[in-house]
Amino acid sequence: MAIADARTGSGDPPKVSLLYNPALRSYVYQIVTIVVIAWVIWYAWHNASQNLARANMTAGFGFLNSRAGFDVAQSLIAYSSDSTYFRALQVGLINTLVVSAAGIVTATIVGLLVGIGRLSQNWLIARLCTVYVEIFRNIPPLLVIFFWYLGVLALLPSIRTIFQHLEENPDAVFFISNRGIYMPAPVFGEGFGYVLTAFAIGIVAAIAFAIWANARQRATGKRPPVLMVSLGLIVLMPVVVFLFAGMPLSLDYAIPGSFNMRGGMSIGPEFLALFLALSLYTASFIAEIVRAGIRGVAKGQTEASYALGLRPGQTTRLVVLPQALRIIIPPLTSQYLNLIKNSSLAVAVGYADLVAVGGTILNQAGKAIEIIAIWMLVYVSISLVTSLFMNWFNAKMALVER
Amino acid sequence: MAKKIVAAVIGAAVMGIGAQAAQADTLSDVKAKGFVQCGVNGSNLAGFGAQDSAGNWSGLDVDLCKAVAAAVFGDATKVKYTPLSAKDRFPALQSGEIDMLARNTTWSTSRDSQLGFDFRAVNYYDGQGFMVKKELGVKSALELSGASICVQSGTTTELNLADYFRANNMDFKPVVFEAQDEADAAYNAGRCDAYTTDASGLYSIRLKMANPDDHMVLPEIISKEPLGPAVRQNDSKWLDVVSWSHYAMVAAEEFGINQENVEEMKKSANPDIKRFLGEEADSTLGADLGLPKDWAVQIVKAVGNYGDSFERNVGQGSPLKIDRGLNALWTKGGLQYAPPIR
């Protein structure tokens, strides 16, 4: 109080030259920054539009509704050369999302196993995991993709060999060739909806049972058999429904066509090469993150857990892993984002991802600026959504301070 | 590749300041910097644009670059080459990274208009074909229904392929690569049943295969592919120089002028030849094009006439052994025809 009084008592605040006024200074700096940024953006836009006008080229996204005219090798949605450029971009986006999602799931599983494996007491397992990490971590991802595409998948048996093999073994249903993997495709008959419904109900019921089991454990100290009941609900129930519905599922086998296998399900070598390369490359980084996370949990935690009478499995699941996850999740998010962005290397092996399809459109329509804007917007969006999800997950896993 | 495109676009967007003259004048720019920046095939397409182990470029398209340099500077070595993929070539020309594009590029309406280029001369009349392994037993492109076909992205080939199969009610599985080398490797490894590109390219790629005799080019030609040099739109002076450099090569063949006899032909009594070689008194032909008086002489001295260049690069003097066909002079049943030089 006294100090404040002494300050205010003197009347006006001490006179400072405007030049040194901190409030004014900060305003000036911010305004100058905004003006400079606005000028740069305006200049780039103005210059681009002037240059386009000089080359008699138009700008804008109207071209997206024109006929594409080219075919795309891998498409999960209906697409033909009569579709629009916009549709082609959708095909590319879906392909990017598919390979990214598959890559993230596989990389996480492999990374987790290898990361734990490196900490194994078993000399051989630990060394093998170390070798794996050091090899894949130190090779550029593009080379890993080429390795799979040209070094492994291209050397598989040719489609002619498969045809011959089929003549000798007419019962074979699963083939690996240099044109990809062929397998029977499931054809869902009438009534398969019941099975799916049973499956969905099973999952919901299993979750409800787990919640009830936790409450019961807290109340009585006895733990109901959650695993067995969940398995029964999720697996057994749909199987029973499937049998009662008269097994409404048949298989569509791949058979030799004139040049390729017809029917069935196939996964092309382009997807496989990219998927394997992205997964195994990123898994080597995730393995290190997992190892760091586990090492980051103090040994005392484990010892304390044992002292309380928890078994090793429970110790890992209930004590070590929750704490390790807090260390693991933030760098893991970065690896997921890297994997998504690295999927644009698809262009090297001809997998029709967003960049490959966009590049073709860029060339056919001559719309370089627009296509690059779309690329950037899409990758930023995918990455931000991934980050948001991982941040939410991180917040959920964060230490709750009581 | 994508990096190159991005660089070119940023170049187009930001760096275009230097070239903000109201009317583009590439000829003056070229004269000022002292060389022609020529965009050529970056995948070693033998016969059109390829580099030998010593780094020397050769090919029909490369000869055109040299002819332009000879016409402008009287020195065919004043060319700098930019090897380009099918996908990179257009942004490279749009952004001003290169002065002219001589990269077996098909002249089409949309490229002439929408992409902002100008075409005029055609230095090779081509058409799209298919190559298959002989062991498949395929004799016609119409038997290719259901086949996997290797193709390069961002080309007219890719569009013709889709149209041809659609028109004939056939289906196919495209295997699309950005770089020609990758498409070559995939076809060689058996990833595809057939390979499609311009027929001239097929002959060139066939030679690259482990065993060229195992492969055959099918008889069908499914499209018109007039390949020619492209320049940026609205620069007719530069378009004139590039086009007439080609026409001079064709005219030289019509006149029977070649590298050996060009000095001798200067003494010819034929007024057409005298005018062409800049021997006509007070002729302003060269000056009106913005070139020296003896521009045509320099072109012939540098690369010979069109027929010589053809035979040396893709014809009987080369491993490709392609017949003149459509590329014979108009007087011999072909399409190569130089407008009157007067």
UniProtKB/TrEMBL annotation, chain A:
Cell membrane as a keyword of this entry, yes or no, is yes
Keyword list (alphabetical) reads: Amino-acid transport, Cell membrane, Membrane, Transmembrane, Transmembrane helix, Transport
Q: How does it sit in the membrane?
A: Multi-pass membrane protein
Localization, per the record, is: Cell inner membrane; Cell membrane
**Record's Gene3D superfamilies?**
MetI-like
Residue intervals passing through the bilayer: 27-45, 91-114, 135-156, 192-214, 226-251, 271-290, 345-365, 371-393
- Domain named ABC transmembrane type-1 is located at 93-390
Q: Which segments of the protein form a coiled coil according to its record?
A: none
Family indicated by similarity: Belongs to the binding-protein-dependent transport system permease family. HisMQ subfamily.
- UniProt xrefs under NCBIfam families: HEQRo_perm_3TM
The protein in question is named: Amino acid ABC transporter permease
- Organism, scientific name: Mycoplana rhizolycopersici
TrEMBL record, chain B:
Q: Name one Pfam family in it.
A: SBP_bac_3
SUPFAM superfamilies of this UniProt entry? Periplasmic binding protein-like II (SSF53850)
Which stretches make up the Solute-binding protein family 3/N-terminal domain? 35-265
Transmembrane region(s):
none
Family matches, as SMART domains: PBPb
Q: Which domain of life is it from?
A: Bacteria
Signal peptide positions are: 1-21
Keywords of this entry: Signal, Transport
Q: Which InterPro entries match?
A: Bact_solute-bind_prot3, SBP_3_CS, Solute-binding_3/MltF_N
Which Gene3D superfamilies has this protein been placed in?
Periplasmic binding protein-like II
UniProt family annotation: Belongs to the bacterial solute-binding protein 3 family.
Alphabetized PANTHER family for the sequence = AMINO ACID ABC TRANSPORTER PERMEASE, AMINO-ACID ABC TRANSPORTER-BINDING PROTEIN YHDW-RELATED
Q: Write the protein's name.
A: Amino acid ABC transporter substrate-binding protein
